[in-house]
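Below is how a single chain appears once it has passed through the pipeline. First comes the sequence as given, then the structure the pipeline wrote out for it. We keep one example in the README because the format questions we get most often are answered faster by looking than by reading.
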Amino acid sequence: MSDLSQFLDNEPVVATAGTDMLAVSIEQQGSTVSRADWRPPAAGTEDALNVLFSDDRMRDANEVAVGRMLAVRPHLADVKVARDVITGMTDRTFLHAGPPLEWDRASGPMKGAIIGAMLYEGLADDPDDAAARAARGEIELSPCHHHDAVGPMAGVTSPSMPVAVVEDAAGDGVSYSTLNEGLGKVLRYGAFAPEVIDRLRWMDAVLGPVLKAVLASTGPIDLQSLIAQALQMGDDGHNRNRAVTSLFLREIAGALIDGADASVENRRAVFDFINGNDHFMLNLVMAAGKLGSMAASGVPSSSLVTVMARNGTDFGVRLSGTGDRWFIAPAPPVDGLYLGSFTEEDASPDIGDSTITETVGLGGFAMGAAPAIVGFVGGTAAGAVRRTLAMYEITMTEHPMYQVPMLEFRGTPVGIDASRIVRTGVLPQINTGVAGKVPGTGMVGAGLVEAPMECFTQGITALAEVSR
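Resulting structure:
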């Protein structure tokens, strides 16, 4: 009653929604305006939304799907050779980021990474030979997501590479990711110079075996616990992984000192490599996210987004209720900060599976926990918080373990709902690295990008068709 009395005793406030023209006109006449951030649903989705909201099936299905996503408990269990553990991988299979892609449509960094991986595998004599063989179809290209795997940037995973094996301690899911090379001229950014290949071979010969021995001593490592701690220390789980990498190194330090079956020289080299690579944990965080994505997949009528992924040509999305079907739009450019003399003219469109982090409440959805990230991807600290706040509008719940200190330890927004995206016009916020568009260039910057609306309108239309 007191609120009503205050309203009656004071000058009325005019509430407006939609375009700003009416609000501005009213303010010019001296009245107070309260703006509602409202916009109509995405064009062409009205009928689909009517179908999906005609009963409680989608709501109930979403509760099941997001519950499954949050129930996983990812643990790093082992490091093995890709061909030995990844289902469907042969000596000629090369996994890549994003939705399905053929060589002739591949972006510059994707082609560069494939060339480098072929040189690493000994399947070509030089870069030109590798490109010619790939163009002739001598290797099989397949998305990481089709094999329960993820890869950052180009995401290329070749048969001989060591991969992290991440298991669900609360279920039977298993996911895989490559090990992180660091920043700069690295394979995942499309570089293939001799030093890139030499590093990959060192990772194969030293890093993988040493980590395998360490894990045999420590037992599985609780990744979710490390990620949750790191959010309290300024990480976001995508482009800022300094804290979680430090926590991981602390976790394995004892075994690395005296519990690993490896030479002192190799153990020291592994320590130095991880210690000097603030992005080392990115790949492991992604594999942890993939477990949540897998658990939430295949729930009929659910509009939960289980995959967002890019290959430098296309941006692809999957929904829980439509299974393995991809909804694809052109990969957008990244609004970035650039290294050295590089500019946006040197940049490839958005690329990588690392948006799996946003899909499970990290990355752009957790930027409010990592205001210092703006020094890497651009924007402002206040803007980082605003991006996180906006994501609550298009998600189903808050993560019980991933919390944002700046928001009074509110859980990060998790469970992206495609129906809310098309209803509100609010798009998923992503922070990301930027690869050079010319094969062999490597990293040119980092920045911010939004997922294309077209992917979600396609998904909602398809979901309505299977839900009729």
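DSSP finds 17 helices and 18 strands in the chain.

See the next section for the split statistics.
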